[in-house]
Design brief:
Oligomer: single chain
Largest sheet: none
Number of strands: 0
Number of helices: 5
Structural class: mainly alpha
Amino acid sequence: MDKAAVLAVLATLSVVACSKGGTPTTPERAAADRARSLEAYDFPIGSTDVARGEVVYAEFCEGCHPGGEAGDGPKLVDLSESPSQMRFKVRWGGDGMPGFDASMLSDADLEALVAYTVTLGAVSPSL
């Protein structure tokens, strides 16, 4: 194959790649995309440490959701979300709420927080 033919093939591949979003999916990108899906957070509550969860709530949540009621953030009492919905919201935020990644809030503390929010009615463990 001559140089012109090789260049033509490469140009065609570039056009095809760009028309499909350009960036190939890497294992890291695929893992990040999965982490941003609700399904990635769908598993049973992994902690019963409600006391630790209350401490975590006081540190990360109380300022915007005082006592589980509306403040700068919405009311959490009797919200009845699933554990996966709560995990996802805490990790990724949204609607004005900041997200708290694992460097800020460990997975163990997140699970304790979810266990505590069950006591507020914010999470329904049966969902």
